[in-house]
Amino acid sequence: MLGTTQSLMDFRRHELLTRSSTSRGCLAVFPQGKKSRQRVAVGDSSGSVTVFTIGKHHEIQTQFETPVGPKAVSRVTLYDDQLFFVAGPQICAFSKKGKLFFGFESNMTESARSFQIDTPFIFAGGEYVLTTFKEVNEVGYFMSPDRINEMLYHRHRDANNDEPMTSNYHMYLGCNDRVLRTVLGNQIIAEAGCEAPISAMSFAEDARGKDLVYGTSNGSLGAFRITKGDELARKYSLIPDSRLGSVTSIACTDINRDGTADVILGREDGAVEVHALSLHADNAAPLRMWTANVGEYVTTVATGMITQTDRDEVLVNTFSGKVISFTLSDADVDISNVLPKLMVARAPDLPTAQEVIKTVKAELKNAAALQQPTVADAPVVKIAERPLPVADSPAVVDKPVSGGTLTVLAPHRPQPITQEFLPKSKQSSPTAHDSGPSQLEILHSQVTDMRSQIEKLQAAVDLKRQEFATISGVAEASKVRAVTSEFSIRESFSLDNAAVMTLTIEADVPLKFVGVQCDVSLELLDSESVVTPCQGAIGRDAVETKMLCTLQPAEGRNNRVHVKVRSQEGHGGSIKAYVVCEAQPRSAQTRVFQIRPLCLHIRVVESEVDWASLPLSTLTIQGNFTMRDMHGWLLNTLPEIPEVLTSSSLTNSLFFRNTFQQTALSVRYVKGEAEFNSDSLTTLSILKDCITREATARKIQIRLQHNMRKESILRHLQLLHPLIGYQSSLVAKQKFIEALKEIESQDEEAASTLAPEYRQILADAQKIESEIKLQPQRHQFLKEIALTLFKDKSILFGENATQARTTELDNLLNQYDPQAVENFFGVGSDFIASQSTEPQLAPQPHEGLIATAPPETPNEETLSTRRLST
Asked: Residue limits of the BBS7 platform domain (predicted)?
């Protein structure tokens, strides 16, 4: 479990500035210089990088800003006090004074997803390719077997040679196939499996050694210790009990000054967390000390002395471009030692707020009597019920927020103080100020100037609108056509270990709604957004459209929609999302997400599954196809397969696990032959249909041979028994709730004499109804899995699945009895008694071909004789 849910630390929140939308890794904190506060660099979608610092009055002081480029900044990093960033194929470097001293256009065809500098070497990681440059010259590249999500380097020193060489660098690649790869000299030297695809990495160093800390797409946190031999040793792995947001960024520093590095991480759902490592046990898992939520996707987290001069802060960059600082509070430290003295100074002789209000009311009354301009036309200012700060100090307002306190700093705007606001001891004689303007006259003059500026701006807007109407050929400016507004979108569609697919769409502007259209049936599970299903006729595409609804942002999160769905395997399709922004002129963007036929499967490493203990059935496909052909067919059938076949070996192996039914699948293929092993007949049947359909479209003749074992059916049913049994009991109990409640309302004594099981139903009535309401289609979803298994068994074993037999099975599933269902499938107690208990070993490839066990009942098919189902 990931630490604790209680916040053991307290932070104050400061919103520093807002830029254009940003990508991951586009914020960096400069090392400590002569000044006490550190500088911050942030790159955005405009192609520019801004370097700023915080002044004494907490104002933003821009040090320099790079020119706007044609491409968005994808990564920002530092080497000492030099700034490096990537924007498209261009790599640029600026000095601490803001001077461009290095830059070139690389030959990378992929956008840099990760970027590291150790002069003279530059390491740029694209989607699949890791490229190494020595200054402007490419000196090597590595093609990863799967998508590279994050990259780090570790340099080991050569005692005999001080000059750095590429052989001195261990590159650590966190890949999408749940493997952490170590690359040396453009060759893989080690691989380590992880519980989920790695999404973020960072180094943590202290007196005990150096650790590689990683976060994954399912929200887990783990670490490897880098040994003296530069090898990786597993240190800890924290897998969450429930679904957490994907880890998007990690920073490691001693934030609480206890002598050990703390882990600060950000998540895609806006959560920011601080985890503290143990002071004594080296391999102990970290404890979550604090968490807060910024309300949107976190692109980068970093640490440094940004607004304070005596302690590190947590710096957060969000997708919409916000830069937020969280400062550690310490109740034992006086506030004057934490903030500049100017921020906490209070003038003892200033009047209180009540005295100010009384004076203003009297002045308003006199002005109304004389029919003079008053402050009624001026903006309303709420005055806090406490002594005012000095005139040259910014106002400080503390607001409680989740996980800390929000401190709002008003701009530094000195205000004139009239005689009425001064203490009597400091008021001068009336004749000294009779000739000067009064406070009311000053306010009235400011309002008049502001209105004049607004009128000028309105006239300029009307003029430009009329010019655009003339260019567009429209007679009236009010009928001018809308202009497409541009906004950035970040989308994700992922599957977790609970077989739940999560669709998240986030924009850098407020959203009006998101229209969702899907051509496969989906079960809506949960949503933080407002879901409105389409009522009535869907339209001319009604045959292809299975679901149509709109998603509206939840209150407080107007730029994000989030919904959880589940789909049954067997039918592939797509989800189309039409994202409509709130801003005028209103515009929309479209995003498409693919749903594979085996959409509930996830990639795993081979060692995660005990293949020797599983009763595996086998499907073998042979034909005149290449490895690239088979890879493309699998890409359209299974998720988490890389789009490009990068493996150079003669055999490629993939391993999967069904997140809902916990069945396993192994795939091995070479040129002209592929073998699939699984303990689920349904999985093999879907693979058989999909690959046959793809081969038919390519006019490639293939031969199918399968060895189906009834033990696979028995194991599949044993995995379904607890799921269907629980849902069947819920449905059965729900039927009694209304009658039992009526008995209880009429006669409480009679209700107390009910059987214990009925009294328990009454006690759990609210829980039962809430579970069924939360997932009303769960029981039918599970029944469909069992019915599909029966149909696949009948086809693969050459049996006849009549309508009467299907209806009989449906009745058995309603009155669920595990033994009766097993007997119906022919794998009951009689079958178990007749079978051997020897385990079935998973087949292994041999000499470039795939070894296939001799089938019990050989069954070969060719495309010329096989009748495809539509």
From this structure: 612-706
